[in-house]
Amino acid sequence: MAALLKKRALAEYSQVIQEEPKPIKKLRLVQKPVTSEINLNLSSATNSQDVLNILLRFGNTLPIQGEQTSHVVTQILDHFSHEKETIVRCKMVELIGEMSKLPGCDVAEIINGLMSLLNTEKSHKVQGSIVESLTSAGQTISSSNTAVIQELVEKAVQMLKDSCHMVRSKCLSLIGKLSSNHYKTDNGIHYNIQDILANFTHDQDPRVRSSSLQAMLSFHQRGIQLDQMIYEQACKSLVDDHESGRMAAVKLIWVLSHIYPEVTIKSEDGGEDLRLIDDGFAKICNMMNDISMKVRAEAASLLGSLHLVSSRFLEQTLDKKLMSNMRRKKSASERAKEHYQSGEWSTGQKWADDKPKEELDAESVNLMNIGACGAFIHGLEDEFLEVRNAALDSLCELAAQSQQFSILSQDSIIDMFNDEIEMIRLNAINSLRKISHNIILREDQLDIILGVLQDYSAIVRETAHSMLGDVKLATKECVNACVMALLDNLQRYPQDKEAVWRCSRNIGLNHPHLTLTLVPDLLCIHPYFDTPEPDMDDPAYITVLMLVFNSAIKCPTMLPLFQEHTLRHYTYLRGSMPELVPSLDLNQHVEIVVNNSRQNLSGVLTQCVSQLTNLDKLDSSSVIQILELTVRDLERLKKLDVSISHVAECTSMFLHAQLLVTKLMSDIKRTSGKMTLSSNVIAPLDKVMKLTTTLQTLFLGISNKELSLIRQTELQALTIQLQSVILHGSLAEQLRTAETYINYLQHLQRFLETNSIQPDEFTTHLIAPLGNLEPSKLNIIRHVTHTSLELIHPSNFPINKQVRKTEVKIHAPVTCLDSSVKFSAGLTTGIPLDVTVENIENTRNILIQVNYPDQQQQLITPCLSHWRKLSPLRHRLTTQVIISHALWSESCPIEISLVMKVAPIPGRRNTKIPENIELCKPVEILVLTKPSKRA
User: Fold this and answer.
1) First and final C-alpha spacing in the chain
2) Are residues 787 and 844 in the same domain?
3) Domain for residue 713, yes or no?
4) Alpha helices, DSSP H only, in 524-675?
5) Closest CA relative to residue 233, chosen from 200, 265, 198, 203
6) Of 76, 184, 181, 82, which is closest to residue 129 (Cα–Cα)?
């Protein structure tokens, strides 16, 4: 019996596998199932209410397949003539119009049915619905089908004589969306469609007038050239008594100003000829005094895109004229200038100041039609924030096009720094930053700007820091005022220190010569006495050093003024914050060594990776030793230089995974191929899977070639795991693991073929026999995977300098174990959280993780509105972390951090992977729950 079992076992292990050629890929055609017809069964309804309910239920099932629409439309059209209720007939027509938008439906049949209904319908409301549905159906047919479109337009023109305003409005909308510029009747008479639309701008109903203007705008959106003569009609519509008409007129004037900017027209008062864009600009500016907030906001938003306006019209928008007793009131400077030029005695009296003034008729004074005069002043002082925001955007856009206008508008923009709405203040700060290349700030302007640094909003302060780093200052007093304001900002809000340091660096770079005159005062340099050495831990002192050191780049005469301790502090800051402190030539040996070593770090990284080229020729102990040294060197390089830290960390993680696999293979060979399911095998495999998951989740810019190396490393770990399970696991566990393994191998094979990547020897050995194998054939899987273990060799990882890692910086809260946050047990409290996340594409995968002392864990999804996009890959999160817990006996720390959800990786459905990956070191906060007070 024993001999028989031995013979059977030997036979099983000596099984010969013949590799069969891959079958030819066949094209599999799937026949679409026959669609069943939808039966509305409208005839079974006893009253109109039942019919309406049937139609509403059917409307909720849309969309349906295009082939099913024909039967449904037929049922609705058949029942239409039997329905007496107007609202039900309108719902029928509306459903037909919605079905005409579905792909695959017979639009011609729908149009013919609706046209027949339109010829017999008497209700104006239903006629308007039919015309609207015809418009939807007409937009879905191709433009080459001119006969159908011509028929629809001809019918709409005929119905323009209807007495109902709604029918006329719908017909005008159809003409604007479907008609061409010219219309020809059956009698051969040609009409200009734009003339027809212009005639309806004088209609008695405001909705019809608005529809005619909207139809002209639809012409422009469809690429049809608008006639210049429409401009006169649009100007007359600016005084329409309905809001929608004035809104459409403003848009139409804006469109015509872009189409015919250089065309000259006669001014209204019969004076000089004006360019159309100048006149249109003045007309739109005049609408800034409209009674409707929507019209004012629309006019303010359209002004910014009129870049070809003459400078004299632009300058008028900032000239606000005051009226007193129906006369223009002169400013104080104008009165002083007039008094000086008159040459009168300085008695406080004026010659003939008591002469009688001309009598003015109140009806002859026009206070409303002011044109462009003071338009932006009125817009920036509007009571609605929508108007102020739109006016600020347009003012900034126009100022960015002209340096002269930038200088004139800077006072108006700076005045908006004191607005009560935070959004307006932010917009004003960003607007001033956009035109900073055209302006130089004075001291009186800077006083208003620096007041923003005391704002409670962290976003406003951060934006102000960025703006101050970009603007140009006029005098050294301005620079000194900025430094003092930044130091005051540090004292009020210590969490702003990094933003303050960046601002101080940029101010120094932009104003080196102004800073030179302030160096003795800023660094407390005395010509005769030695001053005490400042504390390097003081953020205010570091702020001053950032300003001085960055100014010294463009002003070498500043270097001899530095004291000995200032040079020592420079060396320390240059090593700890190289991104903020520049490289200065101080002729010191220490600095030269630091600079040279920093320049050679990139070469050291290349040298570390290049020594791994011939690892497959070395024995396992040497390979392990080299990999350990390389991983250690890369970890050190990551801490030395920020510019190569992401590349070094990415390479280090990959090589660490290779090191773990190599150690496992060395242990297997040392034990003669015996593997167990002990922690000595499972723990390293889990570590490898965690490393590869982190590489695929946190790093951006990894190429497909590098991604293939990472996934082939995963395949090596999964192969070792499969061998352990097959040798020691249960049958169910073996089948489950084999299914996961084959699934991953197939996904990897498709990935390599799609990207035309040549796999390594180990992967090639597995794909050929196992690519299309059933997971139930465990003997074949065991044999192939066992023989493939000999082919596992560590591979090199190319250096990709485009790689970026997702990083998180928690600004608030900071770790504090001195004072505790107290709240009643069972209730909630909020902890402010301010975080900057860099190198992230989708913020939806970011979660807030709270770890409690009793090992409870809470995951919070931040509200999307709490995210603020700073750049395409940089985001800011400002929110409240709501925590709650039961009663504690003493204060205990909780940990708050950010984690990222791991996206599903193809083929790793049942493998053990972490659900979330930590992005930063947790912040510890001391929390104390108090017993709730009972009434």
Assistant:
1) 85
2) no
3) yes
4) 539-551, 564-576, 589-599, 601-610, 620-640, 645-670
5) 198
6) 76
Phi, psi torsion values for 349, nearest 5 degrees: -105, 160
How far is CA 240 from each of CA 15, 276, 296, rounded to the nearest angstrom? 93, 21, 14
Q: What is the CA radius of gyration of the chain?
A: 39
Residues 464, 431, single domain; the answer is no
DSSP string, 816-832: EEEEEEEEETTSEEEEE
Q: Within the chain, which residues score under 50 in pLDDT?
A: 1-2, 4-16, 34, 322-326, 333, 346, 360, 362-369, 588-597, 935
Q: Is 562 helix (H, G, I), strand (E, B) or coil?
A: coil
User: Among residues 765, 791, 817, which one ends one of the domains?
Assistant: 791
Domain co-membership, 428 together with 382 = yes
**Domain co-membership, 553 together with 610:** no
**Does 837 map to a domain?**
yes
The H-or-E segment that residue 355 falls in is none
Joined tokens for residue 74: 């037929």
Instruction: Report yes or no: 483 and 544 within 8 Å, Cβ to Cβ.
Output: yes
What are 56's two structure tokens? 């509403």
In a domain, 129, yes or no: no
| Residues 753, 639 share a domain | yes
Q: DSSP characters for 677-738?
A: SSHHHHHHHHHHHHHHHHHHHHEE---HHHHHHHHHHHHHHHHHHHHHHHHHS-HHHHHHHH
Do 773 and 729 share a structural domain? Answer: yes
> Which domain, by its residues, includes 532?
440-578
| SS3 assignment, position 36 | coil
In a domain, residue 25? The reply is no
Pair (389, 490) in one structural domain? no
User: For the chain, how many residues are written?
Assistant: 935
Could you tell me the CA-to-CA distances from 703 to 293, 695, 797 in Å, in that order?
52, 12, 11
The whole-number pLDDT of residue 888 equals: 79
Q: What is the domain count for the chain?
A: 4
How far is 183 from 311, CA to CA, in rounded Å? 42
Last residue of a domain, one of 417, 438, 459: 438
Residues 540 and 647 in one domain: no
Q: How far is CA 105 from CA 72, 102, 112, 219, 856, in A?
A: 11, 6, 13, 27, 57
Tokens for 173?
A: 């909308």
Separation of alpha carbons 286 and 238, rounded Å: 10
What confidence score (pLDDT) does residue 134 get? 93
pLDDT at 91: 93
Query: Which helix (DSSP H) or strand (DSSP E) does residue 86 occupy?
Result: helix 86-99
